[in-house]
Amino acid sequence: MKKEFAVIGLGRFGGSICRSLTELGMEVMAIDNNEERVNEFSMIATHAVVGNTTDETVLKSLGIRNFEHVIVAIGDDIQASILTTLILKELGVKHITVKAQNDYHEKVLRKIGADHVVHPERDMGRRIAQNIVSNNVLDYLELSDEHSIVEIVASEKIIGKSIVDLDIRAKFGVNIVAIKRNKDIIVSPIANEVIHANDILIVIGADSDINRFEKKLIDL
Ligand code: ATP
Asked: What is the pLDDT of residues 149-191, one digit of tens each?
């Protein structure tokens, strides 16, 4: 059975989620209080409806509680975003993801029970900064305030060495969870796995430990 999603707010972020979910073959109901935006999505989403989601009767009449996951992508109007989330929560929607505009907004959303709070501008900013600072870091996923998963290109200094030679876990407290090699992915590589040129190491650990590992990788 196809999963059913509802996206509230069809700005750049909500619009992009709506398009991507549709491309992934999901059933998507697109909701916005701006008729022009809704018209834009009438050929993209499974259903596109005009409605003010701060009105409980509107959400009830759309049968919102039957949707598997609701994404609230109302940006600028923080009050509307909070009120919409609160109503969705009260109506018993199981999974609610909300876009936060700032840290205070995020705090309130978490307090009222949003399951996932996303901060696309902040997160993408951090990601790009990480990539700019280090030529070796290809991508970065924040797991918590202090832990991440990072993709690091194997430097000249470690090519030909095995994971056990490098003694990464003991020296740096980080783990190589996978190695991307050409089109293959070696999941949980064994200690004797030798690093090849152009390998991409997928490393998990505390940010400070990953930074130490990465510096050492370059300066070894
Ligand atoms: P983005 O930051 O994703 O580009 P945006 O800045 O283009 O968004 P916003 O004003 O942040 O647009 O809001 C996103 C959408 O949410 C808009 O299309 C807006 O009409 C819609 N929206 C705002 N308030 C409500 C509401 N109460 N009910 C339904 N839709 C709403």
From this structure: 989 888 888 899 999 998 888 989 999 999 999 989 999 999 9
Residues 79 and 180 in one domain: no
Pocket test for ligand 1, best of 7, 29, 32, 83 (most atoms within 8 A of CB): 32
Sign of dihedral through CA atoms 183, 189, 194, 197? positive
* Pairing outcome for strands 69-72 and 4-8: parallel
pLDDT of residue 220: 45
Q: Does the pTM of the predicted model rise above 0.70?
A: yes
User: From the CB of 13, is ligand 1 less than 6 Å away?
Assistant: yes
Ligand 1 centroid – CA 217 distance (Å): 45
Q: Is the CB of 8 under 6 A from ligand 1?
A: yes
Token look-up 């909070």 returns 82
CATH code, domain carrying 52? 3.40.50.720
Question: What is the 213 CA–ligand 1 centroid distance (Å)?
Answer: 42
**Helices and strands counted in the chain (H then E):** 9, 11
At residue 2, the pLDDT reads: 64
Range of the domain at 103: 4-118
Same domain, 141 and 58: no
- CATH code, 162: 3.30.70.1450
